[in-house]
Design goal:
The chain is mostly helical and 215 residues long. The protein has twelve helices and no strands. It folds into two domains: 50 residues, Homeodomain-like (Arc Repressor Mutant, subunit A, Orthogonal Bundle); 155 residues, Tetracycline Repressor, domain 2. It holds the Pfam family TetR_N.
Length: 215
């Protein structure tokens, strides 16, 4: 039986930082808090990540790798509708895993220029990947002609919804869209007017098979 791989100090720091940032926000946590959380000296943490921006860059790199893996995990034997639905479910889980980054994104982009640059570069990549997803929708006959005239706007609304989903939950807690799975339902609500009848049939099949949340 293989022994579990021991985490490197750098990885422990990243995981502890994510946990504490998720709980208290980026500005509420210092490197000393993180070092204390994993029982290392402040100097040891500083050796690996000299500034908070260095640490945020490392976290963003982890996020980027995980998100890229989600996009790359498209199943060839699944329809475009099913692949998108599974992707959306994973996106919502991703939001909670890196909760602080989505809630504090405006503050992060204003305070850390190098991180802001990386975020913008990543968003350009995601924009292209989203366009590829919907190109597959068109190829499989799942989008109406009306979609062609509003494609950029619809895709932008979807990206905004995903990016700021947790923020709206914080600001509008009295609304009824706070449970897991609601983000996925909202995206499909945006898309429904532009789906062909065959797409709607496929959507129903996919919902019955997978539901709206990760099991």
């Amino acid at each position: 039986m293989e022994k579990p791989t021991k985490l490197k100090t750098k990885d422990k720091i990243i995981l502890e930082a994510i946990a504490q940032y998720n709980e208290h926000g980026v500005q509420g946590i210092t490197s000393r808090h993180i070092a204390g959380g994993i029982g290392i000296s402040h100097g040891n943490l500083d050796y690996h990540y000299k500034t908070k921006e260095d640490l945020l860059i490392a976290i963003h790199s982890k996020m980027r790798e995980e998100m890229t893996a989600l996009y790359d995990n498209q199943q060839e034997d699944c329809s475009a509708v099913e692949n998108l639905h599974l992707l959306l479910i994973q996106f919502e889980e991703f939001q909670y895993k890196f909760r602080f980054f989505n809630l504090d994104v405006l503050e992060i982009t204003r305070s850390f220029p190098e991180v802001s640059k990386l975020i913008r570069e990543t968003l350009e990549i995601r924009k292209a990947q989203t366009e590829e997803l919907f190109e597959k929708f068109k190829q499989e006959g799942y989008l109406t002609e009306e979609y062609g005239g509003v494609a950029d706007r619809v895709q932008h609304i979807i990206r905004m919804t995903i990016s700021f989903w947790l923020s709206q939950r914080e600001v509008l807690p009295f609304y009824h869209f706070t449970e897991k799975g609601e983000m996925v339902k909202t995206i499909w609500t945006i898309l429904t007017p532009y789906l062909t009848e065959s797409a709607k049939d496929e959507y129903q099949r996919v919902i019955e098979k997978h539901g709206f949340t990760q099991l």
